[in-house]
Amino acid sequence: MLWLIPSPDGSRLAIVERVKPGEMVLLLCDSEGSEQSRLAAAQQIFGTSWSPDGRKLAYATTAASAAEDQDGLFITEVETGEQTPVLNDIEVADQLRWSPSGKKLLASVSVLKDNVYQFITYVVRLS
Length: 127
Description:
The protein has 127 residues and is an all-beta fold. Helix content is 0%, strand content 61%. It contains no helices and eleven strands. The strands form three sheets. The protein has a four-stranded antiparallel sheet with strand order 1-2-3-4, with no helix packed on it. A four-stranded antiparallel sheet has the order 5-6-7-8, with no helix packed on it. The protein has a three-stranded antiparallel sheet with strand order 9-10-11, with no helix packed on it. A hairpin with a 5-residue loop joins strand 1 (3-6) and strand 2.
């Protein structure tokens, strides 16, 4: 296990685990750590964050190769498992942060420009 992120009420856990070199999974577990579902698999999974009401998980993934379509920021509805891509082709540089209302998500990314990393912050409004 690499990261364990408890839901706001402590009833569930989001667990990021390395299953083999170059592959991580994001698991939804009960409070005892028993797996309920697998939400994502990618080379890297970053920034995992629960919405304030505990109904959504936001996370960013990085694909193993450019041919795979896994790079980006996603939000998953915990109850249904429905995954929504929010931003594509980004590399999240920090923890994702929800607004207290759960209607906005803050994402910081790093971009290499002229051999220098620049940081860009996105505020994503959700409807």
